[in-house]
């Protein structure tokens, strides 16, 4: 303990250091019925103990009581000087959202006082960003704690409505004076643990433990009390059960005396001197006589095995008749002594009960005796307490070698001892004590106290967990895996500055390595308790004697990476994240649930904040919004001789549209809508608020339109039709003279149905989808994908913010997302998720699918966005998508996988070679391509040997101008964007304080309950930064090490959505990529019927788009044939009797979904011919007879699950095999895959059978 100054006045305390006490402070400490002073509380937390904690310990900051009181109760100047700008907290910052707390601490402790009558402790924890109030008389100090929070809010350190939690485990104070000692106890517990204590630890703080702590504080000051500052006014002996007395003989004195007998003589002499100054106790019996000679009864207590374990405290109760007098014994060397002073007129018998602590360390911690004593006599009664046999723990610490590829799973990896002399600290019961040890070359521990094998463990200890002081953030352990098992481990020089090689063996870092989960401690058979659920703590509460042995020590196994982390208690080894493109939630999934079809599970069960008032599913059901639009159309007036074209006449075209339930084609919308920042705001707020989108380019013009009082106004979300008119003109190059039809404008309001997107809808229904996940920025690709990876966008709002790739004629019409070029711009080198993974040696891969922009530029999107990964050394981290499928199949995916799809884009559907074909759902493309890509990714994971421990996340970067009804909420900026006046300031002055439009986000894994709708479990909604936060939380990386900004720090995580047992996983694994499981009508229709086989005949009737209103009535059959240029061609007929009959032939004989089939004519002159697609040139289906027929892939319209039997009456889609992606040269970048059988449109007398992409083209199999 540090030296304690004794000040003469209270004023000196306020002006001196925290290690200053006054005489009055000592008076208070000697009289336990007095409340603790500010200085004593400060002393108890910061100075008391063998190793003082100070004001900052283990990243916990203690603020002294006087400072808190001055900040809470003082004026503005006092606040700034104490807590505020010039004090502890520094310049105002929002503690809830700031990436770091003042001083980069994890916890701030505020002792709180109410009217000088009661103390409590208010703690702010960075983990959870919450206040916890520890009040021993809860709720006595609630208003005082709230007053401090309100003051911090008023001064700009907290937002509104911050509340605190009061743990129920806090034991209620049983006296009226120990509240200050409770504060000291809680503060020391938190500072020693470095984090929020658990309920079991809190429950250990009681009035009795506070009595003990107060006594120990007094004993630590004993030399000052007894010698340096003698104070006769202090009563040296207690007068009640809770009074304390300093030691009668100090440890230093005891060492100078010859033996314990001499120590006792000195102690008894001093005890008598104290007794002489004390009045005799008052008896209420006839034995009392105030004139009688004084009698003294002295009680001595000792342990009979002093070297092993000494007493800590001792109390003696003297019983005389019905009266009880309790004394706390004072230490006298190796004994404890107290006494009772009496005045009695005749002899009496005094019953004596002596109790010692720690109680669990003794065979019996309480003994009784009786002593006869007469008038004027001095008697001594002695008690000897026997400690339990010492308990010793034998443990061995070993590493596990990393697994070797191809090794038999039954072969256990080699175990190696920790390096010799490595230090280990065994922590007792949540930090209530510890023992230090060193590790021998064989891994066994040697006590630092007695240098013997094993460590002595007090009997009171229930649980033990290890901590390794030798591991720091900048030290890496490395060992050779080719040496003999159990050979001594040699460390690589930890000071060597060399680049971290992720392929090396044996990396171990603080917080990133841990014990095996099942169990951590490997126990000898005699110590197993049946559960083995020890994890990092080993339970020794039932082990009374030796724990382990030299021959069979407890084994602590440290596994090498990859280690299994958990989400909500479920082991998860891999997180795979696929980000798709440009679809709003309602546009894509607005009718996922409706009517009696409801989600079967909602997370969280008790939503918070604005989440609490929402519908179970926030989709399109019950909504019928109206969307006004208007535009100027330039026509020609009547012609005249002087003006043969007619004069130009401007007209205003106005209209109002509503959403369409069911997209009219699978390429809706056929024109690329505006997706950039200024247009998103018009889509949200409408033309009446944002009449000129150019106004959105400056905050000065934007904020008055979309904000009120500094807050965003609630947008109507009805500007989509109006803005789409401009999008059509821009992307199709239409001049004002071109009339834009209502039918074309209404494409932006088509809402897809679940049966139209069976893969995505089926996965959402079988697993989980969020209906309240906003994209991170109300803009386009680059800025949102930057948030997906880095949690910020370097101030970028539009794709063209950075210098773009040079445009060339071949790609300029693609309207490609412009990307930065070159690495000179330092803002491009953003700290991101993968940076944190690298720092913590967590393997990651970013799988990419195609160049963007495509040839001739051949850019790599990710490496352009983050040029620090442009070097060849990162090629292993950025492989092509083919590697993903290989890794999934082999079970070798890294812990973190991001997937980038094939990029597509273009101005409109009819742009030809100027439209790149992707598989990421970006308008303007056939949605089928994206559906099959998602199916392939899902099935790669579902069929992987690591399916049980893999979580797949599927999301979209932004809505891309497509519709959603739900207004985005205000957002917390990242805090990492450029400052005003920077070389590249915030683009458009946008402060990133608003989320973008909702997008679909799916969670897929074994432990996701079917039919789940999930949202945030906090007031903050989910966005792309939730992916980063969830991954880092899952990887057990402390938030202080993230340093990715406020948005990521405050992002809610979705790990708790994994709350299913996974019992029904096998049933849904195969059926998930489709909606057939929910199709009750088909199930009823086919009941009792047989599936189609190659022997059955059917007619093909064209349905086309079954979701039109009204539905089609005149449907075509395939009939004919007709002859042209020596070939037979099937043609359309609406007469059933003229229809051709076919058989559908598959390899198995049964017709099943996903089969490649031949469709062969079985009637008329064309019998034996089949429907065929020309290899090139023509676009008309003909009839072929030969050895190499064309094949068609048959699918039910609402399902993409292979092997489902097809029945007569089913509605199907028939894809031409030669147009599958794997059949197309170059993967189909400029050719639409999944071309399907259709009929020629128009009113020609003879209409042929064709094939095409982009339309529904449904066929019914009529028997």
From TrEMBL:
<feature type="domain" description="Ubiquitin-like protease family profile">
    <location>
        <begin position="19"/>
        <end position="190"/>
    </location>
</feature>
<dbReference type="GO" id="GO:0009395">
    <property type="term" value="P:phospholipid catabolic process"/>
</dbReference>
<dbReference type="GO" id="GO:0034480">
    <property type="term" value="F:phosphatidylcholine phospholipase C activity"/>
</dbReference>
<dbReference type="InterPro" id="IPR007312">
    <property type="entry name" value="Phosphoesterase"/>
</dbReference>
<feature type="region of interest" description="Disordered">
    <location>
        <begin position="484"/>
        <end position="520"/>
    </location>
</feature>
<protein>
    <submittedName>
        <fullName>Phospholipase C 2</fullName>
        <ecNumber>3.1.4.3</ecNumber>
    </submittedName>
</protein>
<dbReference type="Pfam" id="PF04185">
    <property type="entry name" value="Phosphoesterase"/>
</dbReference>
<dbReference type="GO" id="GO:0008234">
    <property type="term" value="F:cysteine-type peptidase activity"/>
</dbReference>
<keyword id="KW-0645">Protease</keyword>
<dbReference type="InterPro" id="IPR038765">
    <property type="entry name" value="Papain-like_cys_pep_sf"/>
</dbReference>
<dbReference type="GO" id="GO:0006508">
    <property type="term" value="P:proteolysis"/>
</dbReference>
<dbReference type="InterPro" id="IPR003653">
    <property type="entry name" value="Peptidase_C48_C"/>
</dbReference>
<dbReference type="Pfam" id="PF02902">
    <property type="entry name" value="Peptidase_C48"/>
</dbReference>
<dbReference type="InterPro" id="IPR017850">
    <property type="entry name" value="Alkaline_phosphatase_core_sf"/>
</dbReference>
<keyword id="KW-0378">Hydrolase</keyword>
């Amino acid at each position: 303990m540090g030296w304690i100054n004794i000040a003469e006045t209270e004023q000196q305390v306020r002006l001196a250091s925290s290690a200053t006490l006054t005489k009055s402070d000592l008076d208070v400490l000697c009289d336990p019925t007095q409340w603790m002073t500010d200085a004593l509380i400060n002393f108890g937390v910061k100075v008391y103990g063998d190793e003082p904690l100070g004001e900052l310990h283990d990243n916990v900051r203690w603020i002294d009581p006087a400072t808190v009181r001055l900040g809470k109760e003082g004026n503005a100047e006092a606040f700034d000087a104490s807590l505020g700008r010039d004090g502890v907290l520094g310049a105002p910052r929002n503690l809830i959202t700031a990436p770091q707390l003042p001083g980069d601490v994890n916890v701030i402790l505020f002792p709180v006082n109410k009217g000088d009558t009661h103390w409590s402790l208010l703690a702010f924890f960075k983990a959870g960003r919450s206040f916890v109030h520890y009040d021993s008389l809860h709720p006595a100090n609630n208003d005082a704690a709230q007053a401090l929070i309100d003051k911090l809010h008023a001064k700009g350190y907290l937002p509104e409505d911050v509340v605190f939690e009061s743990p129920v485990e806090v034991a209620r104070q049983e006296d009226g004076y120990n509240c200050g000692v409770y504060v000291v106890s809680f503060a020391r517990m938190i500072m020693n643990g470095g984090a929020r204590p658990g309920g079991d630890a809190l429950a250990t703080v009681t009035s009795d433990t506070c009595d003990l702590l107060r006594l120990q504080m007094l004993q630590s000051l004993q030399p000052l009390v007894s010698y340096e500052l003698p104070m006769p006014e202090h009563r040296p002996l207690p007068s009640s059960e809770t009074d304390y007395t300093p030691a009668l003989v100090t440890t230093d004195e005891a060492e100078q005396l010859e033996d314990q007998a001499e120590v006792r003589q000195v102690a008894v002499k001093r005890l008598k001197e104290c007794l002489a100054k004390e009045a005799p106790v008052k008896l209420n019996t006839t034995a009392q006589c105030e004139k009688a000679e004084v009698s003294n009864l002295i009680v001595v207590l000792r342990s009979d095995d002093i070297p092993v374990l000494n007493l800590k405290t001792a109390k003696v109760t003297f019983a005389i008749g019905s009266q009880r007098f309790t004394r706390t014994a004072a230490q006298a060397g190796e004994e404890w002594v107290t006494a009772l002073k009496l005045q009695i007129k005749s002899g009496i018998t005094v019953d004596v009960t002596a109790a010692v602590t720690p109680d669990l360390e003794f065979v019996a911690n309480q003994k009784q005796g009786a002593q006869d004593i007469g008038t004027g006599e001095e008697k001594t009664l002695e008690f000897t307490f026997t400690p339990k046999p010492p308990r010793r723990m034998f443990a061995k610490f070993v590493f596990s070698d990393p697994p070797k590829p191809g090794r038999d799973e039954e072969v256990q990896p080699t175990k190696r001892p920790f390096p010799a002399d490595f230090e280990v600290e065994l922590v007792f019961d949540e930090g209530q004590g510890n023992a230090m040890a060193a590790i021998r070359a064989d891994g066994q521990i040697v006590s630092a106290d007695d240098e013997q094998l094993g460590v002595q463990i007090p009997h009171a200890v229930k649980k033990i967990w290890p901590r390794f002081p030798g591991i720091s953030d900048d030290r890496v352990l490395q060992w050779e895996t080719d040496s003999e098992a159990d050979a001594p481990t040699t460390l690589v020089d930890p000071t060597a500055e060399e680049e971290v090689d992720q392929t090396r063996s044996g990396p171990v870092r603080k917080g990133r390595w841990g014990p095996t989960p099942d169990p951590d401690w490997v126990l000898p058979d005699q110590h197993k308790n049946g559960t083995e659920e020890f994890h990092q703590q080993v339970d020794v509460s039932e082990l009374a004697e030796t724990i382990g042995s030299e021959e069979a020590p407890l084994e602590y196994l440290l596994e090498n990476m990859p280690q299994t982390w958990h989400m909500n208690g479920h082991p998860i080894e891999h997180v795979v994240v696929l980000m798709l493109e440009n679809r709003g939630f309602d546009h894509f999934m607005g009718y996922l649930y409706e009517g009696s079809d409801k989600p079967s599970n909602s997370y969280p069960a008790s939503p918070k904040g604005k989440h609490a008032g929402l519908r179970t599913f926030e989709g399109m059901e019950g909504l019928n919004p109206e969307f006004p639009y208007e535009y100027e159309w330039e026509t020609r007036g009547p012609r005249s001789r002087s003006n043969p074209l007619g004069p130009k006449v401007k007209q205003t075209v106005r209209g109002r549209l509503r959403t369409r339930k069911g997209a009219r084609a699978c390429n809706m919308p056929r024109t690329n809508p505006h997706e950039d920042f200024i247009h998103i705001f018009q889509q949200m707020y409408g033309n009446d608020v944002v009449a000129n989108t150019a106004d959105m380019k400056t905050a000065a013009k934007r904020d008055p339109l979309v904000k009120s009082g500094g807050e965003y106004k609630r947008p109507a979300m009805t500007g989509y039709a109006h803005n789409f008119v401009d999008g059509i003109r821009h992307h199709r190059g239409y001049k004002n003279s071109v009339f834009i039809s209502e039918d074309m404008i209404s494409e932006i309001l088509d809402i897809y149905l679940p049966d139209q997107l069976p893969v995505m809808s089926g996965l959402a229904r079988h697993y989980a989808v969020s209906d309240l996940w906003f994209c991170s920025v109300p803009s386009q690709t680059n800025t949102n994908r930057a948030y997906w990876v880095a949690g910020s966008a370097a101030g970028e709002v539009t794709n063209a913010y950075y210098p773009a790739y040079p445009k060339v004629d071949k790609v300029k019409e693609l309207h490609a997302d412009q990307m930065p070029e070159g690495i000179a711009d330092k803002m491009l080198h953003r700290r991101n998720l993968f940076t944190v993974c690298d720092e913590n040696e967590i393997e990651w891969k970013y799988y990419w699918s195609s160049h963007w922009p495509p040839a001739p530029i051949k850019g790599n999107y990710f490496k352009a966005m983050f040029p620090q990964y442009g070097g060849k050394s990162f090629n292993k981290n950025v492989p092509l998508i083919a590697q993903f499928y290989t890794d999934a199949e082999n079970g070798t995916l890294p812990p973190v996988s991001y997937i980038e799809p094939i990029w597509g884009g273009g101005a409109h559907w009819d742009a030809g070679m100027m439209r790149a074909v992707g598989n990421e759902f970006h308008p303007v493309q056939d949605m089928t391509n994206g559906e099959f890509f998602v199916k392939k990714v899902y099935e790669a994971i579902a069929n992987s040997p690591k399916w049980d421990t893999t979580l797949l996340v599927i999301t979209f970067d932004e809505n891309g101008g497509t519709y959603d009804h739900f207004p985005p909420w205000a957002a917390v900026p990242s805090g990492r964007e450029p400052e005003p006046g920077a070389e590249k300031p915030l683009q458009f002055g946008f402060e990133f304080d608003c989320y973008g439009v909702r997008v679909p986000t799916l969670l897929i894994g074994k432990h996701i309950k079917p039919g789940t709708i999930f949202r945030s479990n906090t007031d903050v909604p989910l966005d792309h930064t939730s992916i980063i936060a969830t991954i880092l939380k899952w990887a057990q990386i402390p938030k202080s090490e993230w340093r990715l900004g406020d948005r990521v720090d405050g992002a809610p995580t979705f790990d708790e959505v994994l709350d299913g047992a996974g019992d029904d996983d096998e049933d849904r694994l195969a059926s998930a990529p489709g909606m057939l499981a929910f199709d009750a009508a088909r199930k009823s229709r086919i009941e009792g019927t047989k599936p189609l086989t190659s022997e059955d005949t059917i007619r093909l009737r064209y349905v086309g788009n079954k979701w039109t209103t009204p539905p089609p009535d005149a449907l075509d059959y395939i009939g004919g044939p007709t002859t042209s240029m020596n070939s037979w061609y099937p043609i359309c007929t609406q007469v059933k009797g003229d229809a051709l009959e076919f058989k559908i032939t598959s390899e198995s004989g049964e017709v099943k979904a996903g089969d490649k089939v031949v469709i062969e004519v079985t009637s008329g002159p064309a019998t034996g011919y089949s429907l065929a697609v020309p290899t090139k040139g023509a676009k008309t289906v003909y009839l072929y007879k030969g050895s190499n027929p064309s094949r068609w892939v048959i699918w039910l319209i609402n399902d993409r699950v292979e092997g489902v039997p097809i029945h007569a009456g089913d509605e199907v889609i028939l894809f031409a095999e030669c147009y599958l992606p794997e059949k197309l040269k170059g993967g189909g970048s400029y050719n639409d895959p999944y071309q399907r059988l259709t009929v020629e449109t128009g009113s020609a007398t003879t209409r042929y059978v064709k094939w095409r992409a982009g339309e529904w083209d449904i066929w019914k199999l009529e028997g």
